[in-house]
Design goal:
Number of helices: 10
CATH architecture: 3-Layer(aba) Sandwich
Bound molecules: adenosine-5'-triphosphate, magnesium ion
Protein name: Peptide transporter
Largest sheet: 8 strands, mixed
Number of domains: 1
CATH superfamily: P-loop containing nucleotide triphosphate hydrolases
Order of helices and strands: EHEHHEEHHHEHEHEHEH
Number of strands: 8
InterPro entries: AAA_dom (IPR025669), DNA_Partitioning_ATPase (IPR050678), P-loop_NTPase (IPR027417)
Strand content: 15-25%
Domain AAA: 20-200
Protein backbone atom coordinates (compact mmCIF):
# COMPACT_ATOMS: atom_id res chain seq x y z
CA UNK A 1 0.00 0.00 0.00
CA UNK A 2 0.96 3.59 -0.49
CA UNK A 3 0.99 6.27 2.13
CA UNK A 4 1.05 9.80 0.86
CA UNK A 5 0.45 13.13 2.51
CA UNK A 6 -1.79 15.36 0.46
CA UNK A 7 0.21 17.90 -1.45
CA UNK A 8 -0.67 21.60 -1.25
CA UNK A 9 -0.74 22.05 -4.99
CA UNK A 10 -2.99 20.12 -7.31
CA UNK A 11 -1.87 17.80 -10.05
CA UNK A 12 -2.59 18.92 -13.61
CA UNK A 13 -3.89 15.84 -15.41
CA UNK A 14 -6.95 13.68 -14.81
CA UNK A 15 -4.96 10.47 -15.02
CA UNK A 16 -1.38 9.32 -14.46
CA UNK A 17 1.01 7.78 -16.95
CA UNK A 18 3.86 5.37 -16.34
CA UNK A 19 7.19 5.52 -18.19
CA UNK A 20 10.21 3.23 -17.81
CA UNK A 21 13.73 3.93 -19.03
CA UNK A 22 15.43 0.69 -20.11
CA UNK A 23 17.85 -1.13 -22.41
CA UNK A 24 19.90 -4.23 -21.67
CA UNK A 25 23.22 -2.43 -21.89
CA UNK A 26 25.09 -0.67 -19.09
CA UNK A 27 25.90 3.01 -18.92
CA UNK A 28 23.89 4.24 -21.92
CA UNK A 29 22.17 7.03 -19.96
CA UNK A 30 18.92 5.42 -18.78
CA UNK A 31 19.29 7.12 -15.41
CA UNK A 32 20.53 10.45 -16.79
CA UNK A 33 17.54 10.60 -19.14
CA UNK A 34 15.03 9.80 -16.39
CA UNK A 35 16.57 12.27 -13.94
CA UNK A 36 16.40 15.10 -16.46
CA UNK A 37 12.95 14.16 -17.76
CA UNK A 38 11.56 14.11 -14.19
CA UNK A 39 12.91 17.63 -13.68
CA UNK A 40 11.47 18.79 -17.02
CA UNK A 41 7.98 17.57 -16.06
CA UNK A 42 8.20 18.93 -12.51
CA UNK A 43 9.19 22.38 -13.80
CA UNK A 44 6.07 22.36 -15.96
CA UNK A 45 4.06 21.90 -12.77
CA UNK A 46 3.35 18.18 -13.09
CA UNK A 47 3.47 15.89 -10.07
CA UNK A 48 6.05 13.17 -10.58
CA UNK A 49 6.69 9.96 -8.65
CA UNK A 50 10.13 8.55 -9.44
CA UNK A 51 10.79 4.88 -8.67
CA UNK A 52 14.34 3.53 -8.61
CA UNK A 53 14.22 -0.22 -9.32
CA UNK A 54 17.96 -0.55 -9.99
CA UNK A 55 19.68 -2.12 -6.99
CA UNK A 56 22.82 -0.15 -7.77
CA UNK A 57 20.70 2.87 -6.78
CA UNK A 58 22.35 5.35 -9.15
CA UNK A 59 19.23 7.48 -9.45
CA UNK A 60 18.68 7.50 -5.71
CA UNK A 61 22.31 8.51 -5.23
CA UNK A 62 21.87 11.44 -7.62
CA UNK A 63 18.91 12.69 -5.57
CA UNK A 64 20.77 11.99 -2.36
CA UNK A 65 23.68 14.16 -3.51
CA UNK A 66 21.28 16.90 -4.37
CA UNK A 67 18.89 16.81 -1.42
CA UNK A 68 21.18 15.58 1.36
CA UNK A 69 18.99 16.83 4.20
CA UNK A 70 15.80 14.99 3.12
CA UNK A 71 17.57 11.68 2.99
CA UNK A 72 18.18 11.06 6.66
CA UNK A 73 14.78 9.50 7.16
CA UNK A 74 14.82 6.85 4.40
CA UNK A 75 14.02 3.47 5.85
CA UNK A 76 13.84 0.13 4.09
CA UNK A 77 10.09 0.07 4.50
CA UNK A 78 9.89 3.09 2.23
CA UNK A 79 12.16 1.84 -0.54
CA UNK A 80 11.32 -0.11 -3.66
CA UNK A 81 11.99 -3.23 -1.59
CA UNK A 82 8.71 -2.73 0.29
CA UNK A 83 6.90 -2.27 -2.99
CA UNK A 84 8.12 -5.59 -4.41
CA UNK A 85 8.01 -7.61 -1.22
CA UNK A 86 4.23 -7.85 -1.30
CA UNK A 87 4.26 -10.61 1.34
CA UNK A 88 4.87 -7.96 3.93
CA UNK A 89 1.90 -5.75 2.98
CA UNK A 90 3.99 -2.79 3.96
CA UNK A 91 3.01 0.81 3.50
CA UNK A 92 5.36 2.63 1.16
CA UNK A 93 5.74 6.30 1.94
CA UNK A 94 7.52 8.06 -0.92
CA UNK A 95 10.13 10.62 0.01
CA UNK A 96 9.11 14.19 -0.81
CA UNK A 97 12.06 15.79 -2.54
CA UNK A 98 10.54 18.92 -4.04
CA UNK A 99 7.09 20.39 -4.39
CA UNK A 100 6.56 18.21 -7.46
CA UNK A 101 8.96 15.26 -7.16
CA UNK A 102 8.54 12.27 -4.83
CA UNK A 103 10.91 9.30 -4.79
CA UNK A 104 10.56 5.63 -3.95
CA UNK A 105 14.24 5.02 -3.40
CA UNK A 106 16.31 2.13 -4.68
CA UNK A 107 17.50 -0.59 -2.32
CA UNK A 108 20.53 -2.86 -2.50
CA UNK A 109 18.51 -5.61 -0.80
CA UNK A 110 16.49 -5.99 -3.98
CA UNK A 111 19.41 -7.90 -5.50
CA UNK A 112 19.05 -10.78 -3.01
CA UNK A 113 15.28 -10.54 -3.04
CA UNK A 114 15.30 -11.47 -6.75
CA UNK A 115 16.36 -14.99 -5.76
CA UNK A 116 13.26 -15.34 -3.59
CA UNK A 117 11.09 -13.80 -6.26
CA UNK A 118 11.90 -16.56 -8.76
CA UNK A 119 9.64 -19.02 -6.94
CA UNK A 120 6.64 -16.70 -6.66
CA UNK A 121 3.52 -17.03 -8.75
CA UNK A 122 2.67 -13.88 -10.68
CA UNK A 123 6.11 -12.51 -9.88
CA UNK A 124 6.14 -10.49 -13.12
CA UNK A 125 3.04 -8.53 -12.17
CA UNK A 126 3.84 -7.26 -8.69
CA UNK A 127 4.25 -3.70 -9.92
CA UNK A 128 1.10 -3.90 -12.06
CA UNK A 129 -0.80 -5.07 -8.97
CA UNK A 130 0.75 -2.38 -6.80
CA UNK A 131 -0.34 0.28 -9.30
CA UNK A 132 -3.89 -1.03 -9.39
CA UNK A 133 -4.12 -1.60 -5.61
CA UNK A 134 -3.00 1.99 -5.05
CA UNK A 135 -4.74 3.47 -8.06
CA UNK A 136 -6.89 6.07 -6.27
CA UNK A 137 -4.06 7.37 -4.14
CA UNK A 138 -1.67 7.53 -7.09
CA UNK A 139 -4.30 9.22 -9.21
CA UNK A 140 -4.84 11.83 -6.56
CA UNK A 141 -1.16 12.59 -6.17
CA UNK A 142 0.65 12.10 -9.47
CA UNK A 143 0.57 13.02 -13.13
CA UNK A 144 3.55 10.86 -14.06
CA UNK A 145 5.31 7.83 -12.61
CA UNK A 146 8.84 7.49 -13.95
CA UNK A 147 10.72 4.24 -13.38
CA UNK A 148 14.46 3.75 -13.70
CA UNK A 149 15.42 0.17 -14.48
CA UNK A 150 18.67 -1.71 -14.84
CA UNK A 151 20.41 -3.28 -17.81
CA UNK A 152 18.88 -6.69 -17.42
CA UNK A 153 15.92 -8.82 -18.42
CA UNK A 154 15.24 -10.12 -14.95
CA UNK A 155 11.91 -10.29 -13.11
CA UNK A 156 12.19 -6.74 -11.80
CA UNK A 157 12.74 -5.34 -15.29
CA UNK A 158 9.84 -7.44 -16.61
CA UNK A 159 7.69 -5.91 -13.85
CA UNK A 160 8.62 -2.39 -14.95
CA UNK A 161 8.00 -3.06 -18.65
CA UNK A 162 4.60 -4.67 -18.01
CA UNK A 163 3.56 -1.74 -15.81
CA UNK A 164 4.50 0.96 -18.34
CA UNK A 165 2.41 3.02 -20.71
CA UNK A 166 5.64 3.81 -22.54
CA UNK A 167 9.15 2.35 -22.44
CA UNK A 168 12.03 4.55 -23.55
CA UNK A 169 15.02 2.56 -24.84
CA UNK A 170 18.16 4.64 -24.40
CA UNK A 171 20.94 3.81 -26.87
CA UNK A 172 24.46 5.21 -26.89
CA UNK A 173 26.94 4.98 -29.72
CA UNK A 174 28.99 1.80 -29.60
CA UNK A 175 29.54 -1.27 -31.73
CA UNK A 176 26.67 -3.19 -30.22
CA UNK A 177 24.12 -0.41 -29.71
CA UNK A 178 21.94 -1.57 -32.60
CA UNK A 179 22.13 -5.06 -31.15
CA UNK A 180 20.89 -3.70 -27.80
CA UNK A 181 17.97 -1.95 -29.51
CA UNK A 182 17.02 -5.16 -31.36
CA UNK A 183 17.33 -7.05 -28.11
CA UNK A 184 14.89 -4.67 -26.39
CA UNK A 185 12.45 -4.94 -29.30
CA UNK A 186 12.58 -8.73 -29.24
CA UNK A 187 12.20 -8.86 -25.49
CA UNK A 188 9.16 -6.58 -25.62
CA UNK A 189 7.56 -8.64 -28.36
CA UNK A 190 8.14 -11.82 -26.32
CA UNK A 191 6.47 -10.16 -23.33
CA UNK A 192 3.60 -8.98 -25.55
CA UNK A 193 2.97 -12.59 -26.60
CA UNK A 194 3.49 -14.18 -23.20
CA UNK A 195 1.29 -11.73 -21.31
CA UNK A 196 -1.09 -10.78 -24.11
CA UNK A 197 -0.22 -7.08 -23.89
CA UNK A 198 1.03 -4.44 -26.30
CA UNK A 199 3.89 -2.59 -24.64
CA UNK A 200 4.59 0.74 -26.33
CA UNK A 201 8.23 1.71 -26.71
CA UNK A 202 10.35 4.38 -28.36
CA UNK A 203 14.09 4.73 -28.83
CA UNK A 204 16.32 7.73 -28.12
CA UNK A 205 20.04 8.19 -28.73
CA UNK A 206 22.28 9.53 -25.99
CA UNK A 207 25.79 10.98 -25.60
CA UNK A 208 25.73 12.10 -29.22
CA UNK A 209 28.56 14.23 -30.54
CA UNK A 210 27.75 14.85 -34.18
CA UNK A 211 31.46 15.34 -34.95
CA UNK A 212 32.28 11.76 -33.89
CA UNK A 213 32.06 8.84 -36.29
CA UNK A 214 30.49 6.51 -33.73
CA UNK A 215 27.74 9.06 -33.05
CA UNK A 216 27.14 9.60 -36.76
CA UNK A 217 26.88 5.83 -37.25
CA UNK A 218 24.34 5.48 -34.44
CA UNK A 219 22.21 8.35 -35.76
CA UNK A 220 22.27 6.85 -39.28
CA UNK A 221 21.14 3.50 -37.85
CA UNK A 222 18.41 5.14 -35.77
CA UNK A 223 17.17 7.18 -38.71
CA UNK A 224 17.48 4.59 -41.46
CA UNK A 225 17.23 0.98 -40.25
CA UNK A 226 13.81 -0.55 -40.91
CA UNK A 227 12.15 -1.56 -37.66
CA UNK A 228 14.18 0.99 -35.70
CA UNK A 229 13.51 4.27 -37.52
CA UNK A 230 9.76 3.91 -36.93
CA UNK A 231 10.39 4.08 -33.19
CA UNK A 232 13.20 6.64 -33.10
CA UNK A 233 12.39 9.95 -31.43
CA UNK A 234 15.64 11.93 -31.32
CA UNK A 235 18.83 12.18 -29.30
CA UNK A 236 20.43 13.81 -26.28
CA UNK A 237 23.80 15.45 -27.01
CA UNK A 238 26.97 14.43 -25.18
CA UNK A 239 27.68 17.16 -22.61
CA UNK A 240 29.72 17.15 -19.41
CA UNK A 241 26.77 18.94 -17.78
CA UNK A 242 25.02 15.54 -17.65
CA UNK A 243 27.76 14.18 -15.42
CA UNK A 244 26.65 15.91 -12.25
CA UNK A 245 23.87 15.66 -9.71
CA UNK A 246 22.34 18.78 -11.23
CA UNK A 247 20.10 18.42 -14.22
CA UNK A 248 21.05 20.05 -17.49
CA UNK A 249 18.44 22.70 -16.63
CA UNK A 250 20.41 23.71 -13.55
CA UNK A 251 23.84 23.52 -15.22
CA UNK A 252 25.87 26.72 -15.71
CA UNK A 253 24.19 28.85 -18.36
CA UNK A 254 26.93 28.50 -20.91
CA UNK A 255 25.75 28.96 -24.47
CA UNK A 256 26.36 25.30 -25.39
CA UNK A 257 24.27 24.21 -22.39
CA UNK A 258 21.47 26.51 -23.54
CA UNK A 259 21.62 24.91 -27.00
CA UNK A 260 21.35 21.51 -25.33
CA UNK A 261 18.34 22.62 -23.30
CA UNK A 262 16.58 23.81 -26.44
CA UNK A 263 17.45 20.53 -28.16
CA UNK A 264 16.29 18.22 -25.37
CA UNK A 265 13.16 20.29 -24.69
CA UNK A 266 12.01 19.38 -28.17
CA UNK A 267 12.75 15.70 -27.53
CA UNK A 268 11.15 15.71 -24.07
CA UNK A 269 8.05 17.45 -25.45
CA UNK A 270 7.62 14.68 -28.03
CA UNK A 271 8.12 11.98 -25.37
CA UNK A 272 5.52 13.65 -23.16
CA UNK A 273 3.04 13.88 -26.02
CA UNK A 274 3.41 10.18 -26.84
CA UNK A 275 3.17 9.24 -23.17
CA UNK A 276 0.03 11.34 -22.75
CA UNK A 277 -1.64 9.50 -25.63
CA UNK A 278 -0.38 6.03 -24.61
N1 LIG B 1 24.28 12.98 -22.60
C1 LIG B 1 25.33 12.70 -21.85
N2 LIG B 1 26.50 13.36 -22.00
C2 LIG B 1 27.58 13.06 -21.25
N3 LIG B 1 27.59 12.14 -20.28
C3 LIG B 1 26.46 11.44 -20.07
C4 LIG B 1 25.27 11.68 -20.83
N4 LIG B 1 24.31 10.84 -20.38
C5 LIG B 1 24.86 10.11 -19.39
N5 LIG B 1 26.15 10.46 -19.20
C6 LIG B 1 27.09 9.87 -18.23
O1 LIG B 1 27.31 8.51 -18.58
C7 LIG B 1 27.39 7.70 -17.41
C8 LIG B 1 26.33 6.61 -17.49
O2 LIG B 1 25.06 7.23 -17.46
P1 LIG B 1 23.84 6.61 -16.67
O3 LIG B 1 24.25 6.22 -15.30
O4 LIG B 1 22.68 7.52 -16.83
O5 LIG B 1 23.64 5.29 -17.55
P2 LIG B 1 22.71 4.04 -17.22
O6 LIG B 1 22.27 3.50 -18.53
O7 LIG B 1 21.67 4.42 -16.26
O8 LIG B 1 23.76 3.06 -16.54
P3 LIG B 1 23.45 1.69 -15.74
O9 LIG B 1 23.31 0.64 -16.79
O10 LIG B 1 24.65 1.52 -14.87
O11 LIG B 1 22.19 1.91 -14.98
C9 LIG B 1 27.21 8.63 -16.22
O12 LIG B 1 28.46 8.98 -15.72
C10 LIG B 1 26.51 9.83 -16.82
O13 LIG B 1 26.79 11.00 -16.11
MG1 LIG C 1 21.16 3.56 -14.46
Amino acid sequence: MLKNEKSNTKKLTDTFKVLTSNINKGGTGKTAFLYNFAYYLSEKGFKVLVIDTDDSKNLTNLYEDKFEDNFEEIKTENTVMALFNSDLEKVVEPLKLTENIDLIAGDKKLENFKKILVSKINREKILVSWLSDNYDELLENYDYILIDSENSQDDIVVNTLLASDLVIGVAESSDNSVYAINDLQQFISQLDKAFNVDIQYKIIGNKIDTREKSSKDLISALEEVEGIKENYLGYIPKKTAFQSSNTIYEAPRKSNNLDTIIHINKLFKSIKEILDKA
